[in-house]
Amino acid sequence: MKHVKGRLDESILVCVYYGLNGERLIRRGHKIASMLDCPLYILSVDSKPLDTFDAEKSRYIEQWKNLSEELEVEKFILLDDEKRPIQKVISEVAKNYRISQIIVGQSAQSRWEEITKGSFLNVLLKEVPFVDFHIVAVQRPTEDEIYDTYEKGVRAYLIKENENFNVAFTCPKYVSIEGIFFKEIGTDFDNGIFKFTYNDKMHEVHITEGLVVDVKLLPEGFLSPLRQ
């Protein structure tokens, strides 16, 4: 059942980007909206057209749509092929749907992380001065939570082959990066998460059919040791 604005005249917008934290933010927004008995909207923005989304992006979008239906969210808003600055997009959506509160997540692998930085936050506050912002610190999932979605981790290696970065499960003869691969439950392909340590810090990248999805997420200086 859809909500109508209650006596507090509130409406909440949750901004999500690809990653494991999207569902958490949506459920957090739903909890607050239920307490206030007000409408809840979900927004995702991508600079690429919908028909060019890879398997991982499409999977996240489908999950969020299904969750929005399950929680009876007022509307799931997907703006693809969007070239405008993110603050302009948020402002337009907030005005169109009369949003009073916006929830965004602080995530190490998300565009929305920029909102937590002072300079961008100041720009956003000037662009959308009529809205209250909630910057939610979203923790990385624990190992137990990972096992709910992924199989037990196995030793694996990240190697470079031509222009791709692949996951291998036997130690290659040439230089590689060693880590742990968590395979998604219920898939016949090598889809999941590769976790590894680099410069004494833990990192992770998403793997689809054995390939690193977004090479840009690899830490700076990481690629130089990888050779054929």
UniProtKB/TrEMBL annotation:
Keywords: Kinase, Transferase. GO terms for molecular function: kinase activity. This is Histidine kinase. It comes from Lysinibacillus contaminans. The lineage of its organism: Bacteria, Bacillati, Bacillota, Bacilli, Bacillales.
